[in-house]
Amino acid sequence: MNRPELARMTKIEVVVTGDDVAAVEGVFTSAGARGYTVLSGVSGLGHGGFHQGSLHFNDRDTLRMVIAVVTDERSEAVVGALRSLFEDRPGVFFVTDTYVSRPEYFS
Fold first, then answer.
1. What count of other Cβ atoms lies within 10 Å of the Cβ of residue 5?
2. In what order do the strands lie in the sheet with 37-42?
3. What is the rounded distance in angstroms from the CA atom of residue 84 to the CA atom of residue 98?
């Protein structure tokens, strides 16, 4: 894709339990991400069955999605840290190329 008016970056989306959000935020921060977005009440169907997005008793019992956009150079550190993080806890992450209009916000 040729988009000369936009800057190429990497978007990383992570789905975790509420208990693991702080660990994912730490990964993003340690890798130099300038910010991230946390979405609560994520629901969907996966290999473990359907996960409901509504709050049950507290915000730790639901799934959350943490999204960050980083430079391609920083993405390698994030991916490596997330792979290590998920060796012993549930969660998934997705890595995609993306294009942004204001690269100074992300680098």
1. 6
2. 37-42, 63-70, 7-17, 92-100
3. 24
DSSP 8-class letter at 16: E
Higher pLDDT, residue 70 or 59: 70
| pLDDT of residue 65 exceeding 70 | yes
Ramachandran angles phi, psi of 5, nearest 5°: -85, -5
Q: Which residue has the tokens 């988009």?
A: 3
What CA–CA distance (Å, rounded) separates 8 from 10? 7
Cβ atoms < 10 Å from Cβ of 51 = 14
Distance of CA 47 to the CA centre of its chain: 19
What number is the average pLDDT over the span 57-63? 64
Domains in the chain: boundaries: 1-7+16-48+67-101
Which one, of 63, 70, 68, 69, lies nearest residue 89 by Cα? 63
Q: Which two tokens mark 86?
A: 């998920």
